[in-house]
Write a structure and sequence with these properties.
Layout (H helix, E strand, L loop, with lengths): L2 H13 L2 H24 L3 H21 L6 H22 L6 H20 L12 E7 L4 E7 L6
Antiparallel strand pairs: 1-2
Helix pairs in contact: 2-3, 2-5, 3-4, 4-5
């Protein structure tokens, strides 16, 4: 994953509430799975395996965060376990086609949680973070990005 993509995810995580955080994690998993497919296409077996491992670590985080007081957690656990098995199968068979099932489940989960996010008006999970305002301006020959951080931070 590129440094810029990681920074984008970091910024979004710092501003996200609980349901938005789950959607972001789904997007991170998707990005690592895309990276795995790309590595395989380039003949980079170690990169493929490492990208799948990173996707698995985020799936494991989701499994650990489940609260089994709620019945939906059992169903989510089943889906996460299926995705994890699919990723393991892709690595053992050295076949990125095995990732298709995980991609399908991931997209459906993401769509569902995006619907929940639209209804969730809770506060961001992370407290004491900087507000970031970003914008684009047009230069003579280029597009310029500007970022402004509100508030002051003391170390």
């Amino acid at each position: 994953m590129t440094k810029e993509k990681k920074q984008e995810f970091t910024l979004r995580i710092s501003q996200a509430n609980r349901s938005q955080l789950v959607v972001i994690i789904y997007e991170i998993i998707h990005a690592y799975m895309d990276e795995a497919v790309e590595c395989n296409g380039n003949g980079d077996w170690n990169g493929f395996r490492e990208s799948v491992r990173k996707a698995q670590s985020f799936i494991n985080e989701l499994m650990e965060a489940l609260d089994f007081k709620y019945p939906i957690s059992v169903e989510l656990m089943r889906l996460y376990l299926y995705m994890n098995r699919t990723l393991i199968r892709a690595v053992t068979k050295k076949d990125p086609e095995e990732l298709k099932g995980a991609f399908i489940v991931l997209e459906k989960l993401k769509t569902g949680f995006q619907g929940i996010t639209a209804q969730d008006s809770s506060a961001p999970v992370m407290k004491n973070t900087q507000q970031v305002y970003a914008g684009l301006t047009y230069g003579r020959q280029s597009l310029n990005e500007t970022c402004q951080y509100s508030g002051t931070r003391y170390c």
